[in-house]
């Protein structure tokens, strides 16, 4: 499997980039030790106190791990762990659906750790949410490291790694580059003073923190403030050029990751690692992708380019500090031109490039290219000038590349285009041009599945009863099993030019008895949802359901408008309290909801996937409608059109998959422990009556289903009386 060498400051994993010169101390160290590729192991010291043949088998290690957390072995967990171990040994990719309560984290962590220790390699764990990253790093991995130390001969090591922008830049803290308030703050004294206060907080925190990790700054600060004192990978001077490089938080995190058995990261950084020719993650041959249902969206976001007039003006200001002002002024004039054009353009997906917009983009492309030429090669004897130049060059290159990509997107005939272009207008933000890939399957197939063994897992992967729905988006062929090659020492099959990557899908179920623990209620008697808010019949149904449950309700709505309407109306009708997303920090709202069983919480997208409230505080989950993407969503509509143009069912493939994922994630909020009981109520009758309803229902856990409102209200009343 092809390897790569990360460009970090650790001498054991150092590689030059472009015309870099090694500092003498690193060059001497490398001369003594040899090149990184000359040795297999990551460390000079012995990898383990035990030879690989003396390390216990997977079943023994899993038993130790489960016992360490006070649990008991579960059939689904054991099946999943065995499948993960087989995937690692055979090289066959694996998709595992593991319902809530399975213990899937241990099921992939234990075989991952065993492989890392035995083979003296690193395994990467990728997650979608900060919450799961913190759970793994703060709870699961420390417990496992302690529990497995004796059996493995040493404690397995782990580290968390994020994108460089997530770490404080000490060079900027100490004045190595100017702070750059955004245009709005330049003229608004209140915005400027608020920004100054936040920057002061960050500076004070920088003297206390050991990691420089933004997530450890509580309470947090705005993106605008954090950007003043952090850098992207392209803006970074590099550890051996930076005056404070030896103390760099990001380099320290990367150094720890390069020496760890297990590295926890996120889907965004995993995507960047796949997109960039220069590796970001440590060399690894196995990756575990948890929350894999979010992989396509996160990779798409990482591959999406943006271009705005403000971005171009900022690039011009940065260039003005480093090059002849007249050249920077050309870029500023081009920025004003694109601003005028975008002000008159309505938000929409572009089928063709309008002439005026194309002309403005061309001017911007050429002006940014002139600035890049003027910035020229780096002057290594001028650290301060190098910082200003690097900041200018990074943003100007991004601006230039996005302008080129936007212009090139329309070169091919409509049915053969790879990118989708649209104009976006969001509240409190100027109009922005965006360009995103029509699909990311090809990228994932080539740069992820083609490079390393991959295990994908989530509670929601088998949509409509099949893994193939998501597999198509990942770039995998229809499911087929690969037979292990018994005569090969590694157990892996030789490369083949025929077909796509080989993979297996496995559903290990859930320890919860869904038909005994939960009811799926579909309000088939209600009218179809409209576009003008919640109909009166929906508000009446909501009132009766929440009243029967005695509160204890999580309301998942398709829009904030609907959530607010429901909250305001039900506060007038009910005696129990109703919270609504947006009225406070979401984490605080969830905490209040969990603390008081009579409280209900209404909200939108982040609550569909981010709430974990076991016990009596959550016994009713209400979804107002099937969560199809908006008809005017530029990316979804383009993907739907492309599928239809090739003879597929665009609506079911794109909109149906999106809805099925969210429905399943929303339904997953109900049963969070083996003692939980309750109701999933879907007010949208189309789940029962539409032709696509069967596909969506097959994506949900196997709850007992009813369409009778009296039956469900009676069940909720009885449940309320017993808690």
TrEMBL record:
InterPro entries xref list: ATP-dep_Helicase_C (IPR006555), DEAD/DEAH_box_helicase_dom (IPR011545), DinG/Rad3-like (IPR045028), Helic_SF1/SF2_ATP-bd_DinG/Rad3 (IPR014013), Helicase_ATP-bd (IPR014001), P-loop_NTPase (IPR027417)
Reactions catalysed, as given in the entry: ATP + H2O = ADP + phosphate + H(+)
Nucleotide-binding among keywords: yes
Any single GO BP term: nucleobase-containing compound metabolic process
Assigned EC number: 5.6.2.3
Cofactor entry: [4Fe-4S] cluster
Domain of life from the UniProt record: Bacteria
Entry keyword Nucleotide-binding: yes
GO molecular function, one term: hydrolase activity, acting on acid anhydrides, in phosphorus-containing anhydrides
Start and end residues of each stretch annotated as Disordered: 1-53, 479-508
A Pfam family of this chain: Helicase_C_2
Family membership noted in the UniProt record: Belongs to the helicase family. DinG subfamily.
Protein's recorded name: ATP-dependent helicase DinG
Organism: Saccharopolyspora gloriosae
Top-level taxonomy: Bacteria, Bacillati, Actinomycetota, Actinomycetes, Pseudonocardiales
